[in-house]
Write a structure and sequence with these properties.
The structure is a single chain. This protein is 84% helix and 0% strand. The chain has helices spanning 2-32, 42-47, 49-88, 94-106, 110-130, 135-159. It is mainly alpha-helical and 161 residues long.
Length: 161
């Protein structure tokens, strides 16, 4: 029974990591991503604010399923392999090997995948160290991308006038 509870909490933590890191990822790509124009002044930024905000829902729409499915599965695989390696060597190397494996799985999607894998890994590490994961927090964390999606759409519409 304790093993099942540990696995449940592991999956809860991975899903929380996926939704939180996806939200940060979409926000980052919305403002600094490949489709944002380079702005040289605050005025340029404010003029294009509606397009930056409008791209956030697009990034969320396409990246959230990838984070939830591919990211969660590969993170579980990375942690499993890193745990096996750390049992053979030293427990101190678990984080290093897990991080390297996360980045290798993220490299499949080029530099944007590396960024996504890095954010996922850091988010998961923080949640694990702080113990900030349970079913109630999972429900809340899954609402973050939804609220961000709606907020960005509304703000993009407001700033377009």
């Amino acid at each position: 029974m304790a093993l099942q509870k540990g696995i449940d909490y592991l999956i809860i933590r991975k899903l929380m990591s996926a939704s939180i890191s996806c939200s940060i990822y979409a926000l980052f790509l919305g403002f600094f991503g490949p489709y944002s124009d380079s702005y040289s002044s605050l005025n340029d930024f404010l003029v294009n604010l509606d397009s930056y905000l409008g791209s956030i829902p697009v990034f969320l729409m396409y990246s959230l399923p990838i984070f939830l499915i591919y990211g969660t599965i590969t993170s579980l695989i990375s942690d499993y392999i890193a745990r096996l390696i750390s049992k053979l060597t030293s427990n101190k190397v678990f984080v290093v090997f897990s991080g390297i494996l996360h980045l290798l799985f993220g490299f499949y999607f080029t530099w944007v995948g590396l960024l996504a894998a890095f954010l996922y890994f850091i988010t998961d590490l923080v949640l694990k160290k702080k113990g900030l994961y349970d079913l109630k927090k999972l429900r809340f964390s899954l609402m973050i991308p939804v609220v961000m999606f709606i907020s960005a759409m509304v703000l993009s519409h407001l700033f377009s006038y």
